[in-house]
Amino acid sequence: MPRREDIQSILIIGSGPIIIGQASEFDYSGTQALKALKEEHYKVILVNSNPATIMTDPEFADRTYLEPLTVEYLEKIIQKERPDALLATLGGQKALNLSLELDDEGILAKHKIQLIGVNTDSIRKAEDRLLFRRSMEKIGLEVPESGYASTLKEAVDIVKKIKFPVVIRPSFTLGGTGGNIIKNWKDFYKFVPLGLAISPISKILVEKSIIGWKEFELEVMRDKKDNVVIVCPIENFDPMGVHTGDSITVAPAQTLTDKEYQRLRDASIAIMREIGVETGGSNIQFAINPSDGRMQVIEMNPRVSRSSALASKATGFPIAKMAAKLAVGYTLDEILNDITKKTPACFEPAIDYVVIKIPRFAFEKFPEEKPALTTQMKSVGETMAIGRTFKEALQKAIRSLEIDRWGFEEKHKKINKKTLKEEHFRPNAERLWFIADALRAGISVMEISEFTQIDPFFIQNIKDIVDFEKELKSLRKDSLEHNLLRRAKELGFSDKRIGKLTGLMEDEVRKMREKTKVLPVWKVVDTCAGEFESETPYFYSTYEEESEVPEINQKKAIILGSGPNRIGQGIEFDYCCVHGVFALRDSGYKAIMINSNPETVSTDYDISDRLYFDPVTLEDVLSIYHNEKPEGIIAQFGGQTPLKISVGLWKNKAKILGTSSQAIDETEDREKFDNFLKRLNLKRPRNGMVRNSSQALKIAEKIGYPVLVRPSYVLGGRAMKVIHNEEELEKYVKSIREYSAEYAILIDEFIDNAVELDVDLLSGDATMVTPPYFLADRVIEEVKRQVILMAKELQILGLMNVQVAVKGTTIYILEVNPRASRTVPFLSKATGVPLAKIATQLILGKKLREINIAGRPSNLYAVKEAVFSFDKFLEVDPILGPEMRSTGESIGIDRHFPMAFLKAAEGAGFHLPEEGRIFVSVPDEDKPKIIPIVEKLQQLGFSLAATEGTSQYLQI
Question: What span, in angstroms and rounded, lies between the C-alpha atoms of 802 and 769?
Fold first, then answer.
């Protein structure tokens, strides 16, 4: 079928700010789809409130609206743009729910807008738990015994019938929000009211728990001709009871028999037909009872999902692109696979390697929350690794997590069968290391499987690794010969872990490998297990004989990605990496990308000239560097991840492009940074450097409590804390030594009631800031002078971020980051200046005066509002401090600051009431300043009721 000619313009709704359960995978899928639709010459209108995304760059859509994702704003945009169609399957649950709201309110019908990709009936049948259950029963597929409740009483009646344990699943939510496993009435009355409140339609499914069954996901695509492709079968390492976003997953499925796979395949096709997904992809989840093979359908997502991004990166099959093409009329047999350029998209991918995804959690940011895993998703990101075997991929994925784990380090030496049952039966973020320690303690594979309900296949693979560790440990330093070293690398052991086990340093192991020619090779991701030649340069490392990487005989440079998303280092850094790639290619360089994050645009197969899907560690980057021999490495776009290894790269004679490793070290090491500021005669809060509790107590007493403590080489305020007394300080220093043992800790004076500024610079002789609203011009000019002075002294090439506190007219330098920052995408969108692209040009040797920096007029205000995911952590107190806790951000742009602020707040999900009472709390020192505001409010007709000293009630 040819492309549809009856539509000319298509509206796409993005997923909005990053939250747990809805992250950068939707920037990846949205960007891919936008490119596909532009190729077909459709006019594309995009609405998204997330400034950190690539998809909201002006070149991807014909019209881009950085506006809140609400029906009110969408209707105004629809009235202005008059789109012919709405493609709702690319923006996660947010876009699906908004599409239904637009339909329910008659807006789609009023403006004659077609819903393409999936219709409203199909969305409701998939997302409404009762309708989905009926649909499955209609086609003879079993679902867990359940009931549908819209009140607490209805839920009580269901539980009395099906008995505990049960799972509650709110309708129309994402990432398992509001869901939980309930084993008793106490938990029932705690979680059921929450689930009813969280569901947009105030309904929940109360389902008989099948905890312990094996879980599988199939990524499925269907077109209007009823061609169906199973893109990828994915198996969960964890049994049912853990949200699939929090589970370790493996592709292809490892423990399915062929008969079981065919059953899942047939069921998936039947489900697609019944739900009515005619043009696009879906994710379908199944459970299989390991004792008797009984199969049940859990749920489906009639849209691209987080698992779609994983399956796309695992196979090289671009699900979002294909979904967009199918939505505008094409069929699978008419579209060529972009990887081979020969096979049509109706060919099912076949892979001859193993892909493992491990979620990354942020429990260190929420110490109140137990690291237990349930049906409600809690992970903030994920990493993916590719290897020839399960063992190799697993160990690569572990070191890709960037949690200072390099393998199966011993963590729980006193483990026994009692503690094993207690710790393992409740799934948690440390389960891999618990299993390894249980095996070391002599507990058998079958016993661990019985306790954890994890398939013995996976536990046996971990046992093989642990057993080989014993062999390495028994060696003398000088007896690590070629065959044993090669075997270790084939099993995925990192140089660092081998060194730890054999008493060697990491660089000693590396030199030994190089001397004995135990070197990695790189294999291509080709979607067809080598049956057809791949034309897309997408590679992973392994230890075999033959490398499949052809030589690039042109100028080339490597950009280091940011690894798995986490709080403090997320999609913003991937944005900078992608812009760096674009700028390299525009400057005549071949761009080589190294990253391990399956959610991101940077790891799409057609973004860079060459993609290495490998860990961003010193070992892996050096191997690629020596193989590629590029002009150099750009380390300043990927956040803290590349910075941590930049000094190691420099010491190993890798050329760092842009800001030097010495300058990076001078700013990241708190002690050296303090000396740097003294040399420039710049003011900073009173402070001291300490390395132990005794020093800390003396310095803090001298400065006076409260104090602010900061370790070196961290991001997102990691482990920064306001300390109020000696007891807190002693506890902090003891805990931080394991996190930042080799560097001094900075203890700062806590400056109360200061205004904090973020300043982003290019090269050192230009600074870009959004118009500050509360600061005098002379203060802004002095800030510029100081940050330019620092940039020149450090010889910054590219980007630099400075955090400044201003109290009155006094300026305090808090910290300097010689890299891209979280504010770069925001400032780029706010000013119209592509900061990361320009920074890349400067790194490659251009001068600022040679670049025409033409931004938007400065009559607009831009506001960035933080977005949190506290609803995923029931025990967490949502109090904010110096350690970052937000998972995303929204932007508001307007000619007036109050409206920009309002838009940013609405984009973040905060909706101001139109009537009621407002509570205003004012510090004593600011009371004189509020008098004119109070008088203005009275003139506007507000009635004021004064309460105790510092407060006012305003009646609207």
Answer: 11
* Percentage of residues in the chain having pLDDT higher than 90: 55
Nearest to residue 277, comparing CAs of 233, 315, 226? 226
At residue 934, the pLDDT reads 75
Q: Which residues have CB under 8 Å from 419's CB, separation 6+?
A: 412
**Angle between helix 456-473 and 431-440 (nearest 10):** 60
Segment 888-901 mean pLDDT: 90
Binned at pLDDT 50, 70 and 90, residue 289 comes out as very high
Q: With CA atoms as reference, report the closest residue to 574 among 49, 63, 57.
A: 57
Grouping H, G, I as helix, E, B as strand and the rest as coil, residue 887 is: coil
pLDDT confidence of residue 67: 96
Task: Give residues with Cβ within 8 angstroms of 460, minimum separation 6.
Answer: 445
The domain that holds 676 is classified in CATH as 3.30.470.20
Sequence-distant (6+) residues with CB within 8 A of 602 are 559, 561, 574, 577, 578, 581, 593, 595, 608
Same domain, 849 and 923: no
- For the chain, report the end-to-end CA distance as a whole number of angstroms: 58
Q: Which of 227, 267, 523 is nearest to 348 (CA)?
A: 227
State which of 607, 632, 653 marks the end of a domain: 653
User: What is the pLDDT, as a whole number, of residue 379?
Assistant: 92
Give tens-digit pLDDT for 175-215: 567 788 898 999 899 889 988 988 888 889 899 999 999 99
Distance CA 457, CA 436 (A): 14
Instruction: Say whether both 146 and 277 belong to one domain.
Output: yes
List, in order, residues 6 or more apart from 549 with CB less than 8 Å away. Answer: 521, 522, 524, 537, 539, 610, 627
Spatial separation of the C-alpha atoms in residues 382 and 397, rounded to whole Å: 9
Q: In 3-state terms, what secondary structure has residue 948?
A: coil
Q: How many percent of the chain have pLDDT more than 70?
A: 92
**864 within domain boundaries:** no
d(CA 748, CA 745): 10
pLDDT band at 951 (very low <50, low <70, confident <90, very high): very low
The answer to whether residues 780 and 669 belong to one domain is yes
- Same domain flag for 667 and 637: no
- Say yes or no: 644 and 664 in one domain: no
Higher pLDDT, 220 or 744: 220
Which of 637, 653, 669 terminates a domain? The answer is: 653
* Same domain, residue pair 36 and 160: no
> Which domain CATH number covers 17?
3.40.50.20
> Given the structure tokens 């079968």, which residue do they identify?
233
Do 589 and 669 fall into the same domain?
no
* Residue-wise pLDDT tens digits, 396-449: 999 999 999 999 999 876 777 776 666 656 788 999 998 999 999 899 999 999
Split into its structural domains, the chain has a count of 5
CB-CB contact of 803 with 814 (8 Å): yes
Q: Where is average pLDDT lowest: 219-228, 351-360, 368-377?
A: 368-377
Angle, CA of 758, 761 and 767, to the nearest 5°: 90
Domain of residue 574 covers 532-653
* Residue tagged 């393409």 (tokens): 116
